[in-house]
């Protein structure tokens, strides 16, 4: 089964071709980050327009690199939710047009399911059930992956995602957008105990997160220091933020695995590239005898391979759609997207 997967939910225009789900024949990503960095964050209008400009070239490159032609494809998959609506529509409509052209199914894919599937690409032996942690610029969510297309949310963020907190704090530290990776690098020489940052618990919802208090506290700390003409120890603040984020996420993910009786945890999303989060998960999973899957950094961020892979499993489950398929800015990962 050859599937072309298209991803355009935010600021990456990406396409990939998968063979039987897990074998990736090509994976082409065009990042718009330089453009958005000028504004300190993603500008939705610019994102949509750049997707329009790049989608054909990116998809053609993925097809060429895979050495396949459109008539060889068995289906075309695209991210249809969640994400920036104008951005999603570009990739989804391109994919629908391809599917109509070749007379093969169109497969709508949930972006978070795609992030989870990055682990199937990286680890051939991984099969559900397992617990997934998806931490990105827009999401921080713990999911019980019961099967390839059946999953339920255990905990999610009530406000900002972990990546959003990293990016906003990075901004006041004058780091370029997106600041998560820069914060990670900066934190290496820091003392994580130097600054005390708040932790949040949500009454009655032990698996849910809140990162807005952490974000505001760190931003205020920097502003107050600036007003008083004091120096901020930037590496130590970056280390304290990473320790706080990791300290929120790791225990909840482990507790979720224990409660559900799952013996494996798979991480995904851009924030899963964070070194403190990775080492925190590694340490506790080793102690508890839980198998941990951490995809390579290249598969943590948005890419087409994850959509081509999840597209295969959605196709196998019969989750295909016709040309009236719409896109959605928000949608629960447990919902079936096809036909909505
Ligand atoms: O999954 P992703 O590429 O796009 C979304 O779907 O959001 O995630 C991007 C997010 C950004 O907030 C970025 O700052 C963050 O992932 N990120 C990191 C690291 N690398 C990327 N955050 C913390 N540490 C990192 N090493
Ligand atoms: Zn993403």
Average pLDDT level? 96
CATH topology of the largest domain: the name is Nucleotidyltransferase, domain 5
Q: Could you state the CATH homologous superfamily of the largest domain?
A: ATPase, nucleotide binding domain
Number of domains: 2
Number of helices: 11
Q: What structural class do you assign from the helix and strand content? A: alpha/beta
Strand order of the largest sheet: 3-2-1-4-5
Task: Give the CATH level 1 class of the largest domain.
Answer: Alpha Beta
Largest sheet: 5 strands, mixed
Percent strand: 15-25%
Could you walk me through the main structural features you see in this protein, from its secondary elements to its overall organization?
This protein is of the alpha/beta class and 340 residues long. The chain folds into two domains: 130 residues, Nucleotidyltransferase, domain 5 (2-Layer Sandwich), CATH 3.30.420; 167 residues, ATPase, nucleotide binding domain (Nucleotidyltransferase, domain 5, 2-Layer Sandwich), CATH 3.30.420. Helix content is 44%, strand content 18%. It has eleven helices and ten strands. Strands 3-2-1-4-5 form a five-stranded mixed sheet, with helices on both faces. Helix 2 packs parallel to helix 3, helix 4 packs across helix 11 and helix 5 packs parallel to helix 7. The longest helix is centred in the C-terminal third of the chain and has 27 residues. The mean pLDDT is 96. Bound molecules: 5'-O-[(R)-(carboxyoxy)(hydroxy)phosphoryl]adenosine (KG4) and zinc ion.
